[in-house]
Design brief:
- The chain is α+β, with helices and mostly antiparallel strands.
- Helices cover about 25% and strands about 25% of the residues.
- The strands form seven sheets. It has a seven-stranded mixed beta sheet, with helices on both faces.
- The structure holds dioxothiomolybdenum(VI) ion.
Length: about 675
């Protein structure tokens, strides 16, 4: 590391000012009065912007961005003002002194399966059907030899990327320049142009380096808009970074879930009926419907199946994207239930999954373009040393530690989005490839550079790659594990076109250079809709203190099938990162909302626990060779998300094997084990 990478609030800006946000202290109601005189009296304070004095904005696509426009308070912690000052200290001090009077009305923040107002959204994220039915679940379940009916719960989770949501915004001659922490700047540019009623060409968003995101920065967030609004108001650049504590709520979180799973199987473990009914929450601001049951639609065979989603609209911040949305909570439920079914059928859990494997997608009826779940299960079992496992729970003990092992399957969709790219050749023998991809710390820049050098068939040292700027050809966000698959497609096409034109010129590069541009809009639109997924198998070994219930993960091992591997170093990093996040989910993370105040009780990294080094002793990620010609030119499936899918279930299953206690509500804390 050299420290030369610049992040959103580290770019030089002349005469910059600093913003600090103010959050509502009422859970629901209306602001009746704003008291700003004490804040304005702080030396160096330039402005306190709130709904009463902020410029009117054109409504944004995401209603959570429509802030400082109305006196309504939808949830506690909603951003209701921004202080702008000459220093960050003055801004922060003044923010403390801004006071609001509220007309408060009763609020409701608790997710409950008994909530009479649960409703059925029109679709779930990003555009899946809400409910899917095939065969006759009730009949298949009623006649099954083995039946399981269990409910799992996951709490709220908060994204905690190292770099907070952060923006430097500056206006010049009616043009807006933004340095931002967003996971992809092309959509943000469109949103800003719409909100400020500018031509798209008048907005430039730069995100050369992004310090993590995990979904929490996938689209334009509130600090971007407020920084731009404030910069226009004070007619100077504004830097606005959320404090860590301010990231717990107002920029989104993974919804808590309540998931009922029913499995009906023959005595040999073959599934005849699967039902997965998921409940989660959204806000009164806008709808966000986590697709928790979607995982179950495509994972295992069964003739009779039903998956449903219901939502509670509560006085809470709007949930948002977090690594493997839907599949993360959904796989915890289904892969835990399969472990319970394996016990009920006296069957090895790996064998149970092999028996219910399918090469035909149960939802669409089409063959998967490639499905190597079985290979991952077998290779994982071999590497982990699964074969000699005694299935009985609570059978292994070393001193005060009960030892157990568990496993889970995993999958994640392999999707692509359209993108554009350009490739240029120069007379000095170098090349430049340009695409508005985003490197959010994944190493995407490096992998794309390799793809570009391969496609140009020149040594990488002669290729420059530029990403992270809306001045480059537009591309989709770093999200949904679509990044490298989508971007590499456009890079390959641009490189092919450049090579063709160089061929026509017999390799002679004109003095001014030669540029070719390509986009994949038509190719991506024309691609057949087929079931495309990455797969994996997760194995965990835990030890549990027999007296205190303390759980330690001794090792995690995952084997994945993610298509073509571009860069083994960055791939491994993504996979073990996802697995570590899954470990964190299994044992540590839980966002707790106090229903009396509607406020997040634990809103910093001292009280919202995430796994740290000492919690993660040994994580191994492996992959199998896989070639799938029905994906994209580079044969990539994407690997940013599959590492987290199934991990929490593998650990929960291992805890059950160690202790005989089945914890169906994450995280697995000492209290839940001691009562068992
Ligand atoms: Mo990921 S939740 O699509 O950034």
């Amino acid at each position: 590391m050299t420290g030369t990478a610049r992040y959103a609030v580290e770019y030089p800006a002349r005469a910059t000012t600093y913003g600090w946000v103010v959050q509502a202290t009422a859970a629901r109601g209306t602001i009746t009065r704003v008291h700003t005189s004490a804040a304005l009296a702080v030396e160096g304070v330039l402005a306190v912007l709130h709904h009463g004095n902020a410029a009117r904005l054109n409504p944004a696509v995401d209603a959570e961005l429509f802030r400082l426009q109305e006196p309504t308070v939808h949830y506690r912690g909603q951003i209701v003002a921004v202080v702008v000052a000459e220093s960050i200290e003055a801004a922060r001090e003044a923010a403390r002194l801004v006071r609001f009077d509220y007309d408060v009305v009763p609020h409701r923040t608790e997710l409950s399966a008994q909530d009479p107002d649960l409703y059925r959204p029109d679709h779930v994220n990003p555009d899946y059907p809400t409910d899917v039915v095939a065969g006759d679940f009730d009949a298949g379940y009623a006649t099954a030899e083995v039946r399981l009916d269990v409910t799992y719960r996951t709490p709220a989770y908060h994204n905690s990327p190292l770099e907070p949501h952060a923006t430097t915004a500056q206006w010049q001659d009616g043009r807006l320049l933004v340095h931002d922490s967003v996971q992809g700047s092309s959509p943000t540019r469109e949103i800003l142009a719409r909100v400020f009623e500018l031509p798209v060409e008048a907005v430039r968003v730069v995100n050369t380096h992004v310090g993590g995101g995990f979904g929490g920065k996938i689209y334009c967030k509130i600090q971007t808009l407020l920084a731009a609004l404030a910069a226009r108001h004070v007619e100077r650049p504004v830097r606005l970074a959320l404090a860590r504590q301010q990231m717990f709520g107002p920029v989104g979180y993974r919804t808590p879930t309540i998931q009922r799973i029913r499995l009906g199987a023959a005595a040999d473990g073959r599934l005849g009926a699967i039902a997965h009914d998921a409940i989660s929450q959204t806000s009164t601001v806008t709808e966000f419907a986590e697709q928790s049951a979607v995982y179950t639609r495509n994972m295992y065979a069964a003739p009779n199946r039903r998956t449903t989603h219901r939502l509670a609209r509560l006085d809470v911040p709007t949930p948002f994207w977090m690594r493997a949305p839907g599949h993360t909570p959904g796989s915890f439920a289904l892969e835990s239930a399969l472990d319970e079914l394996a016990s009920a059928c006296a069957l090895d859990p790996v064998e149970l999954r092999l028996r219910n494997d399918t090469m035909i997608d149960p939802e669409s009826g089409h063959p998967f373009t490639s499905r190597n779940l079985a290979a991952c299960l077998r290779d994982g079992a071999r590497r982990f040393g699964w074969a000699d496992r005694d299935p009985s729970p609570r059978a292994r003990r070393h001193g005060r530690w009960l030892i157990g092992t568990g496993m889970a399957g995993s999958s994640y969709p392999a999707r692509v989005r359209p993108a554009a790219a350009s490739a240029a050749a120069y007379p000095d023998g170098t090349f430049e490839v340009r695409i508005n991809a985003a490197d959010i710390g994944t190493g995407a820049r490096t992998a794309l550079w390799q793809v570009a050098a391969d496609a140009l068939d020149v040594p990488p040292e002669r290729v420059r790659i530029l990403v992270g700027d809306t001045a480059l050809p537009p591309a989709g966000v770093a999200g949904g594990s679509t990044g490298l698959a989508s971007w590499s497609w456009a890079v390959v096409r641009a490189a092919e076109q450049l090579c063709d034109r160089l061929g026509e010129l017999r390799g002679v590069v004109p003095a001014e250079g030669l540029t070719a541009e390509a986009n994949t809009d038509d190719e991506v639109a024309a691609q057949a809709t087929l079931p495309r997924y990455a797969y994996g198998a997760q194995f965990a070994e835990v030890r549990v203190d027999v007296d205190s219930g303390e759980v330690r993960v001794r090792r995690l091992l995952g084997v994945f099938a993610v298509g073509q591997v571009v860069n083994p170093v960055t791939l491994r990093s993504q996979l073990i990162g996802g697995m570590t996040m899954g470990l964190s989910m299994a044992l540590h993370e839980a966002g707790l909302l106090d229903p009396r105040y509607g406020d997040w009780v634990n809103h910093d990294l001292a009280t919202y626990h995430v796994s740290c080094n000492a919690d993660v002793p040994a994580v191994q990620a492996h992959w199998i060779a896989e070639q799938d010609d029905q994906l994209n030119p580079a044969g990539i499936k994407g690997a940013g998300e599959i590492g987290i899918v199934g991990t929490a279930a593998a650990i929960a299953n291992a805890v059950h094997h160690a202790t005989g206690v089945r914890v169906r509500e994450l995280p697995i804390t000492l209290d839940k084990l001691l009562t068992g």
